[in-house]
Write a structure and sequence with these properties.
This protein is mostly helical and 65 residues long. Helices cover 82% and strands 0% of the residues.
């Protein structure tokens, strides 16, 4: 991920980060369901979503302190 994208995430409010986190978790759930039922076109998106979720959770912890 580029530094500019990370700084953009840091500029978001807690509510916006939580919304983005919810959206990413929902997409990851749907991808896992799709993987169980059929074949996934872009399997690299699993790792991307998990890393983005971790980044957002880290930023939320920093803002909470």
């Amino acid at each position: 991920m580029k530094k500019t994208q990370i700084t953009e995430l840091r500029g978001l409010t807690k509510e916006e980060l939580q919304d983005k986190l919810y959206q990413l978790k929902k997409e990851l759930f749907e991808l896992n369901f799709q993987r169980r039922v059929t074949r996934v076109e872009k399997p690299h998106t699993f790792g991307q979503h998990r890393k983005m979720i971790a980044r957002i959770m880290t930023i939320l912890r920093e803002k909470g302190a």
